[in-house]
Amino acid sequence: MKIAVTALHVILSVALIAVVVLQSGRSAGLSGSIAGGAETLFGKKKGLDELLGKVTIVVAVLFAATALGLVAWK
Questions:
Q1: Residue 36: CA atoms inside 13 Å, Cβ hemisphere, count?
Q2: Measured distance CA(55)–CA(46) in Å, rounded
Q3: What are the TM regions of this chain, as residue ranges (predicted)?
């Protein structure tokens, strides 16, 4: 069972890295920093970025759960 949880943990770590890398950056120079504040204020996050944000949260929670499970396992 511990081998299965360890394998799942490794898969989740690779998936978390991939999902974070696929997300678009928050700034693109000076114009990005000015527009980024407006996007944060008015919530312009749509489409693929919104989906990747939700997937990131789910994968991060699963990753943390498997990490805690592996630490508690003795």
A1: 10
A2: 14
A3: 51-73
What mean pLDDT do residues 53-68 have? 96
pLDDT, average across residues 19-26: 84
| R_g (Cα) of the chain, nearest Å | 17
Tokens standing for residue 27: 């700034």
Q: Distance (Å, rounded) from C-alpha 73 to C-alpha 14?
A: 22
| Ordered alpha helix ranges (H), 1-74 | 2-22, 29-42, 48-72
Looking at residue 73, the DSSP 8-state letter turns out to be -
- The arithmetic mean of pLDDT across residues 15-44, rounded, is 68
